[in-house]
Amino acid sequence: MPNDNIDVEKCDFLCVHKDTVREVLDSMPDDEKLYDLAELFKVFGDSTRIKILYALFEKELCVCDISNLLGISQTAVSHQLKILKTNNLVKSRRNGKIVFYSLDDDHVYSIIGCGMEHINEL
Amino acid sequence: MPNDNIDVEKCDFLCVHKDTVREVLDSMPDDEKLYDLAELFKVFGDSTRIKILYALFEKELCVCDISNLLGISQTAVSHQLKILKTNNLVKSRRNGKIVFYSLDDDHVYSIIGCGMEHINEL
DNA sequence: TTATCATATGAATAGATGTTCATATGAAAG
DNA sequence: CTTTCATATGAACATCTATTCATATGATAA
Q1: What is B47-121's CATH number?
Q2: How far apart are the C-alpha atoms of A6 and A60, rounded to whole Å?
Q3: CA of A22 to C1' of C4 (A)
Q4: Do A84 and A53 form a contact (C-beta atoms < 8 A)?
C-alpha cells in the first residue's frame, strides 16, 4: 500500500493519516504566503516597533518626537521606522528638515487589538 | 520654561511637543503590557509555528502528524509546540503514547486573519 | 522486564536581529 | 558656501532564536 504525497513511516496506525493529512494540506495557504505572514508578525514582535506604532495611533509624529517620547535613540527609531515602512505599516511625509510618520494601514489597529485581547485574558 | 516629564533638547520648535507628548503617553498602555504584546507577536513571527497553528485550524493532530504533514523534524515540532503551549495558544491531551494538540484560543483565528488581510492587500 | 514507539528536553551550533557608533545625506538659515 | 539640524545608513557587536543531535521520559505490548 503505497503512500502518495506524504511518507508516514511508523505513526500510521493510531494517528490520523492520509485523508486527514490531505484535507489539512488542501486547506492551508501555500508556503510563500505563510512565510510572508510570519514575516509580518515578526515586525510586530519587537517592543520598540510596537511602541512606535502605538505612538502613531494618536497622530503623526516626527522621528525626533518618537525618539524623545519613547526614550529611544534617534538612530534606533530611524532603523525601526524603515522596517515598518518597508512592510507598509507606516508612511512618511517630508516637511523641510522634518519627516513626519503616520500609520499606513488600518490593519495595524486590528492586529494590535486582537493581540491585546489575548493578553488581557491571562 | 522648564520641561517636566520629557526633556526636549533641540527639536522643540517645529515638532509637536509637551502637550502632544503627554497626550500620546497617556493613551499608551504601560511598558510591561507592550512588552508582553510584542512577545505574543514574536510567537506568530515564525513560519514553522504559523504552519503548526494553521494545521490545527482543521482538527487536533498529534506531534507525529504535524511533523509528517509539514515536513519538519519531530524534535523541531516538539520544541515549537512547547512555545505555543507556554503562550496559551495550543493545548494538549494525552492518549496513551500519543499526545494530541489543538488550538487553545479563539484569538489565534482572528490574529492570523487580520495578518492575512494585510498580506492580501499588497 | 525488556523492547518499541511517541514525545520531550538539554546542549551545541548557525543564522537572524536590534542597538550603538560613526558618518552620510538633505534641507534650511546665515 | 558654510553651518546647523533632522534624518538616514552602514558596519560592528552582542544577543536571541530555531534547528539538529543525542538522549531522556512515559506508555504500551510482548
Answers
A1: 1.10.10.10
A2: 51
A3: 28
A4: yes
List, for residues B1-54, the tens digit of each pLDDT value.
333 333 444 565 445 556 667 778 888 999 999 999 999 999 999 999 999 999
Work out the burial of residue A83: count CB atoms within 10 Å of its CB; fewer than 13 is exposed, 13-18 middle, 19 or more buried. middle
pLDDT 10s digits, A46-83:
999 999 999 999 889 999 999 999 999 999 999 999 99
DSSP designation for B30 = P
Element (H, E) at A33: helix A31-44
Cell 499608551 belongs to B28
How far CA A5 is from CA of A12, A49, B63, B68, in Å, comes to: 14, 41, 18, 10
Beta bridge partners of residue A93, listed in sequence order:
A100
How far is A118 from B112, CA to CA, in rounded Å?
Answer: 13
Sequential DSSP letters for B45-107: S-HHHHHHHHHHHHS-EEHHHHHHHHT--HHHHHHHHHHHHHTTSEEEEEETTEEEEEE--TH
Single-letter code of the amino acid located at B108: V
A residues 73-102 closer than 8 Å to B (CB): 88, 95-98
Q: What are the grid coordinates assigned to A14, written together?
A: 493510531
**Contact criterion met (CB < 8 Å) for A57 and B25:** no
Q: Where are the domains of chain B?
A: 47-121
Q: Give me the residue from A24, A33, A119 closest to B33, CB to CB.
A: A119
Copy the grid coordinates of residue A85. Answer: 515602512
